[in-house]
Design a protein that fits this description.
Largest sheet: 8 strands, mixed, barrel
Number of helices: 27
Strand content: 15-25%
Mean pLDDT: 78
Distance between the termini: 69 Å
CATH superfamily of the largest domain: EAL domain
Number of strands: 27
CATH class of the largest domain: Alpha Beta
Radius of gyration: 33 Å
Low-confidence stretches: 139-147, 250-262, 332-344, 717-721
Strand order of the largest sheet: 18-19-21-22-23-24-25-26
């Protein structure tokens, strides 16, 4: 549990209110946080005694002050000792206009009435010892005294625009900081770009949340390097009080102040060690009070790829945006958005791109689902960084106390097991822990280890599913399908392999192998048959978002000698909808000369008319609609409409999953161009492809119709009746 603060440890808190209930609630909250509370009935009484009180925080009830609470706040600011102290207004008017007027009156933050004691606790806890620091040094700022010059902390007033508006004093002996020299300048002009960016982000965060925050940064000059801690206290609508301390030689930082919980220099979140201490306190408290706790493990899908392709700086920005969005989605008014009344944070970056979120006082799984939905929604908006528009997709694993563990170690471990499950198996991108996951995880790890060297061990094969032209009977295309022939397990289902490959990043080397192998095999067949149809490859969502996709395809074509028009790439409607750069990527691929085929058409939300703006060669009607052609009804009408509109727009139409001659007859009558399915053949091993191509051409040349029986007899392939 967090240590109980001693009475008066955090200084004096002045409460100005004529309402007894408000005073009692405020007193209870403040005293529990270690403040000595002094109550005044009105602002005049408070101002007359402020020079003796030296409060570290002031609370003003809007119903106090002669009907003009903002005038009372302005009077407090102008009175001795009231210039920089945190000033909280309690008000039942939270309109934008009212808040703007309050911040213009230099109110630090506004808390809604009736007073929520927990909200007041959370706010004063965010101040740490910042308010005490201000209270302790302000008495030194007299015209005739130079004592303030010896204070190690440097004090500035900074604006939202990044202007260092006013240097108040302190820190003058710091040669790297140079406080007197940077007054009146822009932050971006006096500090390195990474430091300036971090400072500005935290200023905006403080102004948005109206809460104090703290973070660290480093400055270097002439081989000298110093580490600094900056604390921010909101000062009006668009200004903050900035307290900068050189902590290079401070050996007692850990635990020396509550605001030091927020110390991850990249994200501004709490450190791992402090967070785990908080986590243990939450679990202990839950045991005592018999309450529930939920643990979220959150990571960013394909984050390593972002670092590799776009650079570490872009990756760091993605982490910062992720932290900010998760924080923002946990509204302070939400009881689920906190750990408990004593802790300063419920979110930490444990390592790399892994964030851990702990929620206390959980009553039901539905509560947890609400927060999970909120986190995922918060990360849906693309992030624009240095000309790149990135889609952040999180995976979330969730464990719950006491069901999934009774200590921090097991809860965190099981949340990570659920995270692995979410990445590999979950459509929603999140998963709750269950005891059956352990077996699946062990099995999955075995598959991952084996899959990682399957390419080198020649366990991967490509089989080809022909596409038959309904007008000529010729083979109009060959769809490459991956097969993993395991030495012990036999043919491993791709429904098991592909999700795991995507979750672990193995989809990229496997996809590259498929591309190179298909191009090389097609090139060898073309030497025997110059009229070889195009080879089509299926792209996964992750492959389609590769920034170097165009380069990979160019290299594979050049290395194999296969003409670009002999290669087609198949992608789904969903991939086009989710990728905002889809049109740019498709245009690049079209410029290379490869064909684009839209797979599973009819399952997404796009329209055929919208597709005219994209360089698409053909669409494939989803097998669900083709299967419905066995009986007259809605599916037949849909297929007929798709074919008619596509042909009118100049797009070829392919039907997949054809298994009966009745389907063939209907599709041919509607004007469908080509079909593929087990009616003709199952996917062929590469060695059988040349014979199938030759036989189809031979039968087609001897007949005016597609003679399926003759083809089957000549080739002797297994068909599905």
């Amino acid at each position: 549990m967090s240590q109980e603060p001693a009475d008066g440890e955090m200084g004096q808190a002045l409460v100005i209110s004529s309402d007894g209930e408000t005073c009692r609630s405020a007193r209870s909250a403040l005293e529990s946080e270690g403040y000595q509370v002094v109550e005044c009935r009105d602002a005049n009484e408070a101002i007359s005694t402020m020079s003796q009180l030296r409060p570290t925080v002031i609370i003003v009830d809007a119903e106090t002050g002669g009907g003009n609470p903002l005038a009372a706040c302005e009077s407090i600011r102008r009175s001795p000792g009231g210039d920089y102290v945190p000033l909280i207004l309690l008000s039942d008017n939270d309109s934008k206009q009212a808040l703007r007027r309050a911040y213009d009156a230099e109110v630090t933050t506004v808390i809604s009435k009736p007073l929520d004691a927990n909200a007041l606790r959370r706010y004063v806890r965010s101040l740490g010892d910042t308010a005490r620091t201000v209270s302790g040094v302000r008495v030194l700022r007299t015209p005739e005294s130079d004592v303030f010059d010896t204070v190690p902390d440097a004090f500035f007033i900074a604006g939202k625009d990044g202007l260092l508006r006013q240097y108040l004093g302190g820190g003058r002996r710091d040669q790297l900081l140079r406080p007197e020299d940077i007054e009146g300048q822009m932050i971006k002009d006096v500090w390195p770009a990474d430091v300036a960016k971090l400072v500005l982000q935290n200023i905006k965060r403080a102004l948005r949340s109206r809460e104090a925050n703290s973070f660290e940064f480093e400055l270097e000059k002439d081989a000298a390097c110093s580490k600094y801690e900056m604390r921010l206290l909101v000062r009006g609508r668009d200004r903050v009080l900035m307290i900068i301390r050189n902590v290079s030689d401070d050996k007692s930082l850990a635990g020396s102040g509550r605001d030091r919980d927020v110390s991850d220099p990249l994200t501004g979140l709490t450190t791992r060690n402090v967070f785990m201490s908080h986590f243990a306190s939450v679990v202990a408290d839950a045991k005592l009070r018999e309450r529930g706790v939920a643990v979220f493990c959150i990571d960013i899908d394909r984050f390593a790829r972002i670092n590799e392709t776009l650079g570490r700086a872009v990756g760091d920005t993605v982490l910062q945006v992720t932290a900010q969005r998760i924080e923002r989605c946990l509204r302070t008014s939400d009881q689920l958005g906190r750990m408990n009344d004593r802790d300063s944070s419920n979110l930490a970056r444990i390592s790399g791109d892994e964030f851990v979120l702990v929620l206390s006082d959980i009553e039901s799984r539905e509560d947890v689902e609400t927060i999970a939905n909120r986190v995922q929604a918060a990360l849906q908006e693309p992030v624009s960084i240095e000309g790149h528009e990135l889609q952040i997709t999180p995976s979330i694993g969730i464990s719950m106390y006491p069901l999934d563990g009774e200590d921090t170690e097991n809860l965190l471990k099981n949340a990570r097991v659920a995270l692995d499950e979410a990445r590999a198996m979950s459509v929603k991108g999140r998963a709750f822990y269950s005891s059956t996951m352990k077996f699946r995880v062990r099995k999955g790890l075995d598959v991952k280890n084996e899959l990682s060297w399957a390419v080198d061990k020649n366990q991967l094969e490509l089989h080809y599913l022909p596409r038959i032209d309904l007008n000529t009977g010729y083979v109009a295309g060959l769809e490459a399908l991956l097969r993993w022939i395991h030495p012990l397990r036999g043919s491993v289902p791709l429904s098991e392999v592909i999700p795991l490959a995507e979750a672990t990043g193995l989809i990229f080397p496997i996809g590259e192998w498929v591309l190179k192998t298909a191009c090389q095999q097609a090139r060898s067949w073309r030497e025997e048959s110059p009229e070889l149809p195009a080879i089509s490859l299926n792209l996964s969502q992750q492959e389609f978002t590769r920034s170097d996709l165009g380069e990979l395809i160019r290299a594979a074509l050049q290395e194999s000698g296969l003409p670009p028009e002999k290669l087609e790439l198949e992608l789904t409607e969903g991939m086009l909808i989710r990728n905002r750069q889809a049109q740019t990527v498709l245009q690049e691929l079209s410029n290379i000369g490869v064909g684009i085929v839209l797979d599973d058409f009819g399952q997404g939300n796009s329209s055929i008319a919208r597709l005219t703006s994209l360089p698409i060669k053909a669409i494939k009607i989803d097998r669900e609609f083709v299967d419905g052609l066995r009986e007259s009804g809605e599916k037949q009408s849909i297929c007929a409409a798709i074919i008619a509109m596509s042909r009118a727009l100049g797009l070829s139409v392919i039907a997949e999953g054809v298994e009966s001659e009745g389907q063939i007859e209907f599709l041919k009558e509607c004007g469908c161009d080509a079909v593929q399915g087990f009616l003709y053949t199952e996917p062929l091993p590469a060695a059988d492809v040349p014979a199938f191509l030759a036989t189809c051409r031979e039968v087609a040349d001897d007949s005016d119709v597609v003679d399926l029986d003759t083809i089957r007899k000549k080739i002797g392939v297994k068909t599905v009746s």
